[in-house]
Specification:
The protein is an alpha/beta fold. It is built from 8 helices and 7 strands. The protein has one domain: Vaccinia Virus protein VP39 (Rossmann fold). Helix content is 41%, strand content 20%. A 7-stranded mixed β-sheet has the order 3-2-1-4-5-7-6, sandwiched between helices.
Length: 254
Amino acid sequence: MTDAKQSPKQPKQLTDRLFATERKPEDFRFDASVARVFPDMIRRSVPGYTTVIPMIEVITEQYVQPGTNCYDLGCSLGAATLAMRHGIHHDDCQLIGVDNSGAMIERCRHYVALDDHPLPVTLRCEDILDTELSDASVTTLNYTLQFVPPEKRESLLRRIADATRPGGALILSEKVRFESEQEQEIQTRLHHEFKRANGYSDLEISQKRAAIEQVLIPETLDTHKQRLLTAGFSEVFLWYQCFNFVSILAIKPK
């Protein structure tokens, strides 16, 4: 649990230059080098990210229930965690952020401590596939499920649904792929143009894509919707899309 009265220095905001020079091909990892530049990386790489985060606060406020747990699974530096925190107006709720990267959790503690809000936040450095879930009203998977092996995604969503109170919600944000090859090509091209508009070079785009393509496995929107229904959610809505990035709201039946 983080003491909100601490006053650590603001983590230094660095520009993402990790793929700016030629490097040996290797799979993408959420290590200390990524954690240092992550705010800049995700803002410049994920279309709509700066819209999704504040809307997580709005959705949390609508679905949070008194005396429940709220989870941010794959919390990274805590942007969604803090959005949830500001949407929770019950002082008997527990807010838990989980990430398996120690570097991410360490920097997340700084951001949580700097945030001016009285609700405590518990941070767990562990695999979301192993973390204990119970008595939840709102859970967020913000661009996280895409990094879980596809064969393990359904069991994770079942665990979340089973742990969610009736009327509770899951916010699932993901990169998706498209059934149509033409749409896939167009949406991918627009995503790359978004990155170029944010200052990434062709080399950076190419090397990042090569590093991440074996660890970030996107699926179609229909696959996500059907899996959520199978897991135990009764209503599944697409509430946001920008190019090949979407956010879905799944609601547990009352």
